[in-house]
Amino acid sequence: MNRRFFVSLFPAAASLSILSPESALAADPGKNALAAASENTSSADAAAQLRSYWVKTLTKIADPVLKNLSEGRLKATMPVEVNPSGKLDRTRVTYLEALGRLMAGMAPWLELGPDQTEEGKLRAKYILLAQQSIAQAVDPSSADFMQFTGQEYEQALVDGAFLAHALIRSPKHLWEPLPAAVKTNVIKALKSTRVIKPGYNNWLLFMGMIEAFFIKFGEEYDPVRLDYALKKHAEWYKGDGIYGDGPTFHYDYYNSYVIHPMLVDITTVMADTGKETKENLRTVLDRAIRYAVIQERLISPEGTFPVVGRSLAYRFGAMQALNQIALMKKLPDAVKPAQVREALSLVIKRMIEAPGTFDKNGWLTIGFCGHQVDIAENYISTGSLYLCTTGMLVLGLPASDSFWTAPAASWTSKKVWGGENFPADHAVSY
Fold first, then answer.
1. Is 379 helix (H, G, I), strand (E, B) or coil?
2. pTM of the entire predicted model
């Protein structure tokens, strides 16, 4: 990404709060000049500008998907990039991936609703685009009607679930205002995924999430699908906040991409409707909090995190679990919201500003930090990449929240590697 876009997207005041002099990004003279210009900016202004950066980043990612899909032109315009060594045809599933994943990440921000601030007016625009896009995706007469069913297209179960998750996260602005005919089409599309046999792993939660959607919005649901997904994940729990992806442990970020966020929200929906106990919800949430603590500690002083496991092309979507606990205001006392804000901001900045992250038309390209096509597994294509937006869930906290207003604070690894004293970390037994 060129420096002109960097200057317009990332405010000078915000850059001062998250860039250390030692970082590779701070080493750029142009960026140092920006930081120097912000020396007299208050911490409150810096935090506000940092939120503005997040919003501008989110909407930049969303624009090509929503602007084209809302007009029924997504399939005509969206590139379908895959690893050249891959053999799978992703053209039947990649468009639903883009919609479901983008909505899952944007939903908490959209749920704040319109207001008279500049950001509130921007939300009004994207709420409408999102509603129009959902309508196009489930309209059989639309050129952008999407594949939700058929074992041959089993990926549809995954991204139908991400769309269902989005609607659960934003009932007031993504679900309730939809015309009755569109709601009928959404319900029909999601029910059609029931013919797809899920994998014996985190995929059980996709099945469960769709049934949780039906519970939340008063539709007929299948309790067996829900019960099986929850009980199997309880069985696959390995300890200290970490679940197996199926019976075995995998060192990757699926506890964040899928497992904790979906377990928390499925169990919450069930507990709210008397179909699960508050005690079980408490256990699920406590484990998610522990995992969020671990995630915060994984972020290095330079704003990097370990490059390990599959699906790394989801970029900062790897931090969805930490985002969700911050969004829920469930961070433990030892992890301050401001330190999470600063850590996540630097992670997002390092990844989104890497050259080649977007193509010339604004679509995300395959990569972890830049354009790195060989990192893609055979199930990764352009639509898959929009799961990165789940690494921005905390935009669902209003601008007045302390997450966005508190003075900048160092995150754990930055404090520790800077020589500060710190308490010992311990495993949990729940």
1. coil
2. 0.91
Q: Which stretches does DSSP call E strand in 21-71?
A: none
> pLDDT at position 150, please?
78
The residue to which tokens 């004293």 are assigned: 421
Neighbour-count burial of 228, counting CB atoms closer than 10 A to its CB (0-12 exposed, 13-18 middle, 19+ buried): middle
User: N- to C-terminal Cα distance for the chain?
Assistant: 44
Other beta carbons within 10 angstroms of residue 319's beta carbon come to: 31
pLDDT one-digit tens code per residue, 11-47:
433 443 433 333 333 333 334 333 433 444 677 788 7
CA distance linking residue 23 with residue 18, whole number of Å: 10
CATH architecture designation of domain 63-417: Alpha/alpha barrel (1.50)
Q: How far is CA 143 from CA 20, 136, 194, in A?
A: 49, 8, 24
Residue 124 neighbours by CB distance under 10 Å: 15
Both structure tokens of 415: 């404090």
Residue 41: per-residue pLDDT: 62
- Which structure tokens are listed for 35? 């930081």
Q: Are 139 and 185 in contact (CB under 8 A)?
A: yes
Alpha helices in 170-299 (DSSP H): 180-191, 203-216, 223-235, 254, 260-272, 278-298
The helix/strand/coil state of 238 is strand
In DSSP notation, 305-337 reads ----SS-GGGGGGGGHHHHHHHHTT---TTS-H
